[in-house]
């Protein structure tokens, strides 16, 4: 089974469709229950696989832990974890409201930390598994008006590197995916042509291609940018 956080839109939804098409059962969470149920119906009816859906706000530790328990109680083996939940709050570090850093870090970093810890035990017991952290080009560069987001994604890259080293002996792979501007709801209201962005489906294709490699190879990091470069 594949577990995808923040799976009702954009990159997360594209990844779910890609893996469901290949026959993988899915466990997914998001904050909006209506969107979750619509996704569950759509994917189950299209691909004939089982979708386990649970509303969760992963900026809250207790909800992250409840989602982990929900997945473990399905009885399915978690083969793939995609830490995709994320939030972007524009602004400068020295000007943003108090509490923004804490909220962004809890959503973008801590949720990935909790879920990785929650599912690694089963992966170690089976000596197989794959963790994908959907980071960002902001994890390898800084830019104006996105400082706190970049801090969180730099930290996520650190988490990925540490997990990669820890899990090598257990045949568990860890891959960081670093998309640039991708056409998702995060860019709603921006007056740019759609073809100036990468497609969520392209990111999903890269995730799947990284997953199906032999046990002898691990894709550690992938940067995906629009053909014309960063915005």
TrEMBL record:
CDD domains: SDR_c. It comes from the Bacteria. Keywords: Oxidoreductase. Pfam families: adh_short (PF00106). Coiled coil: none annotated. InterPro entries: NAD(P)-bd_dom_sf, Sc_DH/Rdtase_CS, SDR_fam. The keyword Cytoplasm does not apply. The keyword Transmembrane helix does not apply. Belongs to the short-chain dehydrogenases/reductases (SDR) family. This is SDR family oxidoreductase. It comes from Algivirga pacifica.
